[in-house]
Amino acid sequence: AQSVTQLGSHVSVSEGALVLLRCNYSSSVPPYLFWYVQYPNQGLQLLLKYTTGATLVKGINGFEAEFKKSETSFHLTKPSAHMSDAAEYFCAVTDTGTASKLTFGTGTRLQVTL
Amino acid sequence: KAGVTQTPRYLIKTRGQQVTLSCSPISGHRSVSWYQQTPGQGLQFLFEYFSETQRNKGNFPGRFSGRQFSNSRSEMNVSTLELGDSALYLCASSLDPGEQYFGPGTRLTVT
């Protein structure tokens, strides 16, 4: 069975600073990995995904993530935080080719301060 | 293209009642998955339907059930509601294979 661990339930950064949200996965088979963002009172929006191929994945809103098999990690980064990035971020994993059964991490709430 | 829609958006029910939630997927998407989100348990997979058949199932009691219609629209039903069923219920649709696109959710409050 696969699982995901997100280190840090709350992360606070200053506007313009680097954003780093950590995600480690456990999977017995090659994983498919995703990052989703959730704004208050809304559903989840896909930021980016890793399935196969290039290990550095670029997503929407300037976010990117790097799949590191040796470290079983898939950390999310953004060079410069904006106030609009304040939200909750979820890392998710699936080992099915259809990506239809996601296992989510517990989420990291990102706060952006002036 | 219209996104995933869920109705109703908010619902208040009493313990012991049953409830039905509806989800309309993105046009052309045949896979529909349901998730429960609570502060204590986080996001948990309920089940997935594809071509009117349940293809995957999470670890929820039999009070939670679902179905999918020939137009890919899906419903989930919770019978004999308990206080712990209060949650945000999210529906997601996808091509097969493909990433999931989520709806805004239905917030269910059980009193």
Write up this protein.
- The complex is a heterodimer of chains A (about 110) and B (about 110).
- With about 110 residues, chain A is mainly beta.
- Chain A has no helices and eleven strands.
- Chain A has strands spanning about 5, 10-15, 20-25, 30-40, 45-50, 55-60, 65-70, 75-80, 85-95, 105, 110-114.
- In chain A, the strands form two sheets. In chain A, strands 2, 4, 5, 9, 10 and 11 form a six-stranded mixed sheet that branches.
- With about 110 residues, chain B is mainly beta.
- Chain B contains no helices and eleven strands.
- Chain B has strands at about 5, 10-15, 20-25, 30-40, 40-50, 55, 65-70, 75-80, 85-95, 100, 105-110.
- In chain B, the strands form two sheets. In chain B, strands 2, 4, 5, 6, 9, 10 and 11 form a seven-stranded mixed sheet that branches. A four-stranded antiparallel sheet of chain B has the order 1-3-8-7, with no helix packed on it.
- Chain B starts with a strand and ends with a strand.
- The mean pLDDT of chain B is about 95.
- The chains are: A mainly beta (about 110), B mainly beta (about 110).
- The interface of A and B includes residues 90, 103 and 105 of A.
Write the layout of secondary structure elements.
The complex is a heterodimer of chains A (114) and B (111).
Chain A: E1 3-7, E2 10-14, E3 19-26, E4 32-38, E5 44-50, E6 56-58, E7 64-68, E8 73-78, E9 87-94, E10 103-104, E11 108-113
Chain B: E1 5-7, E2 10-13, E3 19-24, E4 31-38, E5 42-50, E6 53-57, E7 64-68, E8 74-78, E9 87-94, E10 101-102, E11 106-110
